[in-house]
Design a protein that fits this description.
- By secondary structure, this protein is of the alpha+beta class.
- It has a single domain, classed as Alpha-Beta Plaits (2-Layer Sandwich).
- Helix content is about 35%, strand content about 25%.
- It contains five helices and four strands; from the N terminus they run H-E-H-E-E-H-H-H-E.
- Strands 2-3-1-4 form a four-stranded antiparallel sheet.
- A hairpin with an 8-residue loop joins strand 2 and strand 3.
- The longest helix is centred in the middle third of the chain and has 18 residues.
- It is globular and about 50 Å long.
Length: about 140
């Protein structure tokens, strides 16, 4: 099954749907990331390093700026690891990196995503990624 569509940013519709879910309590964001071979800074030339770098290196720059912001709002990275090919799933797809980021609640995540300090360097993420998935997760009560 060939990859037909790639994603890097949320759409207005997906953002609206996230808000309408009215998630209560902590929200964990599952991040699936696929890096560009060479980072593409065409959307954010002001952030571009002097020499070309890999997507993975650009994502490291993004993380360096973002982790202190997350810590300051009470969010934390629960898991950060190397991805790979699926055990169950499309055999022609893979993810380079997987992250689980816990936010105290949906409102905290939304304020983070709109923070001007965060947005000033979020272009490193855009430059780094060829494709991504962001899935909000909420703990369910035991049945």
């Amino acid at each position: 099954m060939p990859l037909s569509e790639t994603f890097v940013h949320a759409t207005q519709e997906s953002g609206r749907a996230f808000v309408m879910r009215q998630l209560q309590g902590p929200v964990v964001m599952l991040n699936l990331l696929r890096f560009r071979e060479v980072a593409d800074y065409s959307e954010h030339p002001e952030l571009a390093p002097e020499s070309p770098i890999s997507g993975e290196q650009a994502y490291r720059l993004y993380a360096r700026h973002t982790l202190p912001i997350l810590a300051g709002i009470g969010s934390q990275v629960l898991y950060d690891g190397t991805g790979g090919a699926y055990l169950i799933g499309p055999t022609d797809q893979h993810w380079d990196r997987v992250l689980l980021v816990r936010h105290p609640d949906a409102a905290t995540f939304l304020s983070f995503a709109q923070d001007p300090v965060y947005l000033a360097t979020a272009g490193h993420r855009t430059a780094a990624l060829a494709d991504a998935r962001l899935l909000p997760l909420q703990t369910t009560s035991p049945t």
